[in-house]
TrEMBL record:
Keywords: Membrane, Transmembrane, Transmembrane helix. This is DUF3955 domain-containing protein. The chain crosses the membrane at residues 45-65.
Amino acid sequence: MPIMRLSSAVLILGLAIVAVYPLLGPAFGTAPVDATQVADAPWWLMPVGYFAAFIGAAGLFIGWARKKEKNR
């Protein structure tokens, strides 16, 4: 189903943003990352990543529910 592929891509994109964000510190991760260090990336990047992952997960659930209902 196209909704499953699209949702998977959005979920992976969102999780990739969340996973890469801490590595965007000074010199792109060459310095050790600790609690006092703030990433050089824009502040709004993390919420966008979480929102994209949420949309992807919701789309996967909707696609799964539609597929399950169709097989009844």
